[in-house]
Amino acid sequence: MGKIDWRLFLKLSIKNRINAMENIIIENKGDDTLHNFLKEFIDKDTELKLTIGEFSIYAFYDLLKEIKRLKSFEVILTEEQFHIEEASFSKRFEIAQQQQNICGNNYELTLKNNMNSTYIARVINTLIQSKVNFKLLKPDKYLTNQMILKNKLTQDKNVFLPSIYNFSSDGIGTQPSNSLTPITAITGDENIVRTFSNTFDNNWKDTDSVRDHTDKIIERLTNISSENTPEWLYYVSLYHIFHNQLDELDEKSTIKEGTGFKETTVWNTLYDFQKDGVVGLISKLEKYNGAILADSVGLGKTFSALAVIKYYELRNDKVLVLSPKRLRENWTIYTQNDVRNVLADDRFNYDVLNHTDLSRYHGFSGDIDLKTINWGNYDLVVIDESHNFRNNNPTKNDRPTRYERLMDEIIKQGVNTKVLMLSATPVNNRMNDLKNQIAFIINDNPQALEVYGIDDVDNELRVAQTRYNEWAKLEENKRTTSRFLEMLNSGYFKILDLLTIARSRKHIVKYYDTKEIGDFPKRLKPISIKSDIDTQDNVSSIKDVNDEIKSLNLSLYQQMAYVLPNRKARYEELYDTQTARGIFRQEDRETSLTGLIRVNLLKRLESSIHSFTLTVSRMVKQIEDILKVISRSQNNDIILPSLIDYDDEELETAFEDYAVGKKNKILLGDMDLHRWKLDLQEDLEKLKQIQNGASSVTPIRDEKLNDLLRLIDNKIKNPINKGNRKILIFTAFADTANYLHDHVSEYVKKKHGLNSALITGGGTNKSNMSGIKVTNMEDILVNFSPISKHRNKIDEAATEEIDILIATDTISEGQNLQDADYLVNYDIHWNPVRVVQRFGRIDRIGSRNTKIQLVNFWPNMELDEYINLENRVRGRMVLSNVSSTGEDDVINEDADKRDMNDMNYRRKQMKQLQEQVVDLEDIDGAISVTDLTYNEFKSDLSEALKVNENELVTAPTGMYAITDADLLDEAEPGIILTLKQLSNEDKEQSGLYPYLVIYMRQDGTVKLNHLHTNQILSIYKKLAKGKNIAFQSLVDQFNNETQEGKNMEEYSCLLTQAIEEIKGKTEEVGIQSLFTPGGTHFESADNLQIDDFELISFLMIRE
């Protein structure tokens, strides 16, 4: 190709015979612009030849009349604008944004914000097809920017511009820019123009140097100017909003090549949804140093975590798993040379410790010596059931808490430690429950996520708790999950979205092929059974027994109230607890305890008459024992000690004899024994009367037990899945579990020839199946659920099984028992979440059962009556709900109203459980992590990227689409704007920062501001997803009103009003932060202007 001969250029420029030549300096400011210069020099005989890196439609539009007058217009582009080399998702996005200047650069935002880009693109497309030709310089060639105006008829209008800016509005001077370099134009020299024109022509014809590009430009402009479908605009908006998290969706860029990870057994065992989760977790661990996996019950969190562990082990990282003791074997099995280890080929080598080991300094945990372990040498810590670390309550002996030891000795010390947490899905009523878990990830540094738009993590969590407390006070009909999401601060959304992966069962079914994963079993309508206590009706009803419970003093548990006034101060000094907002008195704690004891008695009565009788009998014996000691003292048979007899250093031995209380002991010599004795005797008399009635109900007369036996008979005779006789029975109390096993196992063995077993956690496990190691809980579970637990790998010849398993909540989490299809809650748990978690043991992905059944035993009374009853039992308990911030949730003047709201709320949840089995995230009123992330929208984007990434990556900004308001009841005519804030100052409080979405009504008022991100995106999705054909009648209506999109003043005005709203909210949030401890970030928003925001897209909602 030809090159510029600068020696020739200098020689020609100094010849005397070019007296008409003139050098013109164009400042490109005010009226002295390249735009005005070209308007003066272009006529119908002008041939314009342009060599340029990039151009925009706005420069063409500014010179529309002039370009139409040209004789010809040829452009050599020196930079490819529509070709993106293979790279990661996020890198492809970055490259694409650099190549988007055809639709306007940063200096042309004002023009883009006029919202008529589509119209302009349509006009310029027509212009190019009739007047302009493009060629593209090949990658290994180089040319500088230049412009030639060749005019054969008018010599004075021959112009050569040896160096120009890009052909954009700022480049031709119609938009201001930061460039200070003027443009030089050499006019009137026919020889210079001819020379460089010939060079241009030679380059134009040189197929080794350039290739035709006009069709590509026309294709690009056609795409820009075409009517977009609502669905396409939805995907384009999501693509921009979530582009910085795209690598979490990109397996290729996350999983490093050469590790052999994809050849591991664990990776190839995973379903697709689990693989996507693992990729996301690894990406978050690399990016944020931690992640929380909070998938719903039954979605295989353990195997997902094992895959993550294997990835880091292949990088020679040292891994520690911290597990609840009851789930320890779920993890240790995969590190052992054991036939049950289905992942033996992967040779896992991580360490496993119990949560409780963090409180130990000596001894062994498995093979690990806790005295010599190098805590600071772990590259990755995996915490199972991490919600157990939600509290960090101080210890009495000033030793570090488990939380503090994990933070100080593992995470902060030694090597940089990444943290993966497996957590329960619900958030429930303590938004701050996540604070300590998040602190592990951010290394206790509240500013750790500042680069991602979260200035102060602690402040966002405090604000979230405040919003929750406000929501909890709403009337029942207003206290909905959607209302809560409206009220919640966007920063909390963003924290969870950055750090968590939380998929619900519905999400998996919706976004993944169920043929590959297998269908979930069908949940049959729950069976509700209401049993009386006594078949002979000789025992009072629950209501009557409860009235007797309410009349008890329960003075046995309120020792501080009976301490002599002159002795009380010493005990207060020992046992009162200092909190952030004052002192929590031991006497108040004991008062609270009596409320819990009354509830416990009621719940035990509801569980089984046997459990209730045992509890009452224990209370009777305790009172009788204390009364004996008091009587001996009053008879002067013994001398009771007092604290005044001991110095401080002797306190450790002071409580060895004649003291009451478990943890906080009180010496009987310091108590008003006369008064206490009278109250104890009154309780004893009432308790003995209750005991006599309850103990008369033998197992034969126990109606609830007999109802259970009939239920078992019916299930065995009429299985809901062919040949499946398995039943899993849960109870909250070990006493009830032992009672059931004693009477069910013998009955079932004798009548049906089936084996039974009992698991009670801290108690003694039992089974009547021969060969079972009852000391090993896992041995019982393997024989109860042999398929899911891979028993055939242990003993291929084994055929005998356990069919009836009775258990406490020790196995309500973390166990796969999906061989069973029938689950009985012998007592209904007060927390509906626990009921669903129990059911999750059999309600699991890939189950062999087509149907599963939940059976709930309820007290024999109407639900409203029962809840009212329980509420009265609880009374006004002065409970100190110490949150993870150390602040007390002190009962205030709104407590009565809140209690009533809680009661109504629970009634609603319990009624829901009587009608259907729901997922955790669908429990009425439960707030779930899955509600608090943008996972649903990222999954929509992920699906779109699989099919249309090439189109999405090149999609221009500033596009619009039109949808129908009638598609959604809550929709109103208006516009949903997707914006990008370009200024780093006055950062908006958006969960999507730097992106914002805002919903404006057509009349200019705000329907939903940018703080309601999740809600707006949900509306956007409902109005757009699946709408892949334009609403032609609405499009025609719009085109008529706006002259095909040319006249967009009405919509541009809405954009201006939206930005004014954003500015207003910035100041409002800033002012509010003045009154939030540690949360001040107030600045005036006056600095924000319309040019500080780039218009990404706008969805017009019409009717």
TrEMBL record:
GO molecular function: ATP binding; helicase activity; hydrolase activity
Segments forming domain Helicase C-terminal: 704-891
Alphabetical keyword list: ATP-binding, Helicase, Hydrolase, Nucleotide-binding, Plasmid
Single GO BP term: replication fork processing
Gene3D superfamilies listed in its UniProt record: P-loop containing nucleotide triphosphate hydrolases, Tandem AAA-ATPase domain
Pfam family name, one: SNF2-rel_dom
Sequence ranges assigned to domain Helicase ATP-binding in this UniProt record: 282-444
CDD domains: DEXDc_RapA, SF2_C_SNF
Alphabetized InterPro entries for the sequence: DEXDc_RapA, Helicase_ATP-bd, Helicase_C-like, P-loop_NTPase, SNF2-like_sf, SNF2/RAD54-like_C, SNF2_N
Name of the protein in question: Helicase
